[in-house]
């Protein structure tokens, strides 16, 4: 098998694993790439194929179903997705796309895959025209229930802009870590890094800066993640709780804002993620973090709570549906189901509720998500301020991908009155 053939083969295995399980695409791909000996360009091609197909799944299926009305087995459909994605959306040379894809087919499906791909080539213009009359759901490959809920919240034009944006690969952004390097020094070493005017120490990069990451000179994160930290506004010497901290993007920024003075108690319920958090913070030169594995929904108190609370400031960056970061989570749209939003809202409220008694009077609590759904954002804040009337609303930031140009993010600042 030649190298790019192996890339197609690996993409096909990834598709099968994704289709037959519940594991997210990034995890499947990382595992497969780790155990393969493909060279860098072929790894990139595997990623392009796998992620590209997931981003365009219902569009590809629309073309496949137009070309062949009869039932297809899953394996044949995956190969046709692979072939048509290359022919229509990647502009891979026709011979390679057809030949190499047919080569992957088992003997039973070989002539079928060959015939459908050749027919797709002949009808390419007609098929690409035909899809323009289809619904947004087909054209941009998003489940109809998401389109319906976003249309209700943001209107049809914003929804179309959001869906189109979700299908464009995300830029690489990083925060320069001032605990380790000055912005000037970073920029003199990374001359292609482009500074973002409204996000002081964030840069846009053309590739992952592996060296700088290894030295803790920067941390890859979207500028939208800064807003919760800026709203929390932690001061040097304070005692801060980061309730859902892993893998540490926000904790690292909080430590920088505190100039590495004071204490941050960084919690998470997931042991593996706490290890990643510890590694990341160590690399970033954070010296003021203490770690605790704790599940805020367990009903148990935070270990050592009496000794370490009350906190001056608490960040509650809860798990959420992640609908603000769909550009980066290509298959999330196919894994979400309508009741996820109310389920998440209840979990978010439970986590928040468990942290409130740890906040001192006049202390600040920031609640944040990377969701763009009102249930997980404004509705949670409304419910929690009704339940705890001593929590006073101070300020709110809501970033929407189609309006603000970065990932979606939501953060509300509350203050505990006497
Ligand atoms: C949105 S992520 C946090 C991202 C992090 N703040 C950052 O900036 O890198 C949410 C985290 O909450 C953790 N988590 C989920 N449910 C939890 C719970 N009940 N108690 C504590 N942590 C929880 C997850 O393991 C996950 O690491």
Topology:
Elements: H1 3-20, H2 25-34, H3 40-55, H4 57-67, H5 74-90, H6 94-104, H7 107-122, H8 124-130, H9 136-139, H10 144-154, H11 156-166, E1 172-176, H12 183-189, E2 194-196, E3 199-205, H13 210-214, E4 218-220, H14 226-232, E5 239-242, H15 249-257, E6 263-268, H16 271-283, E7 289-293, H17 305-308, E8 311-317, H18 332-335, H19 340-356, E9 359-369, H20 378-387, E10 391-399, H21 401-404, E11 409-416
Parallel strand pairs: 5-6, 5-8, 6-7, 8-9
Antiparallel strand pairs: 1-3, 1-4, 2-3, 9-11, 10-11
Helix pairs in contact: 1-2, 1-3, 1-5, 3-5, 4-5, 5-6, 5-7, 6-7, 10-11, 14-15, 19-20
Low confidence ranges: none
> What proportion strand?
15-25%
Small-molecule binders:
S-adenosylmethionine
Note the total helix count.
21
How far apart, in Å, are the first and last alpha carbons? 71 Å
* Alpha-carbon Rg, integer: 24 Å
The total strand number stands at 11
What is the overall pLDDT average? 96
How many domains is the backbone divided into? 2
What is the CATH architecture term of the largest domain?
Answer: 3-Layer(aba) Sandwich
């Amino acid at each position: 098998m030649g190298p790019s053939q192996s890339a197609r083969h690996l993409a096909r295995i990834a598709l099968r694993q994704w289709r037959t399980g519940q594991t997210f695409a990034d995890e499947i791909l990382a595992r497969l790439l780790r155990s393969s000996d493909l060279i860098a360009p072929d790894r990139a091609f595997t990623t392009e194929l796998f992620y590209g197909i997931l981003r365009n799944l219902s569009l590809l299926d629309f073309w496949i179903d137009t070309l062949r009305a009869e039932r297809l087995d899953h394996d044949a459909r995956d190969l046709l997705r692979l072939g048509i994605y290359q022919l229509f959306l990647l502009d891979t040379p026709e011979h390679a796309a057809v030949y190499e894809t047919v080569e992957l087919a088992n003997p039973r499906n070989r002539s079928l895959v060959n015939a459908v791909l050749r027919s797709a080539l002949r009808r390419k213009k007609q098929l690409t025209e035909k899809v323009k009359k289809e619904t947004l759901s087909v054209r941009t490959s998003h489940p109809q229930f998401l389109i319906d809920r976003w249309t209700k919240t943001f209107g049809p034009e914003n929804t179309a802009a959001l869906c189109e944006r979700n299908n464009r690969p995300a830029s690489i952004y990083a925060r320069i870590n001032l605990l380790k390097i000055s912005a000037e020094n970073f920029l003199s070493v990374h001359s292609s890094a482009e500074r973002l005017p409204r996000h002081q120490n964030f840069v846009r990069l053309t590739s992952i800066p592996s060296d700088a990451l290894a030295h803790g000179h920067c941390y890859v994160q979207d500028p939208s993640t800064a807003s919760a930290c800026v709203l929390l506004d932690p001061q040097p010497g304070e005692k801060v709780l980061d309730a859902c901290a892993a893998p540490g993007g926000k904790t690292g920024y909080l430590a920088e804002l505190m100039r590495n003075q004071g204490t941050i108690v960084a919690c998470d319920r997931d042991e593996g993620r706490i290890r990643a958090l510890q590694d990341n913070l160590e690399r970033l030169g954070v010296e003021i973090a203490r770690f605790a594995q704790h599940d805020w929904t367990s009903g148990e108190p935070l270990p050592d709570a009496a000794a370490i609370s009350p906190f001056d400031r608490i960040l509650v960056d809860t798990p959420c549906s992640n609908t603000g970061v769909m550009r980066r989570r290509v298959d999330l749209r196919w894994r979400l189901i309508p009741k996820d939003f109310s389920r998440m809202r209840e979990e978010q409220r439970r986590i928040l509720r468990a942290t409130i008694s740890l906040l001192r009077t006049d202390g600040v609590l920031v609640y944040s998500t990377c969701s763009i759904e009102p249930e997980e954002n404004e509705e949670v804040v409304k419910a929690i301020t009704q339940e705890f009337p001593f929590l006073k609303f101070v300020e709110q930031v809501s970033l929407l991908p189609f309006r603000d140009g970065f990932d979606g993010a939501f953060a509300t600042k509350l203050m505990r009155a006497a």
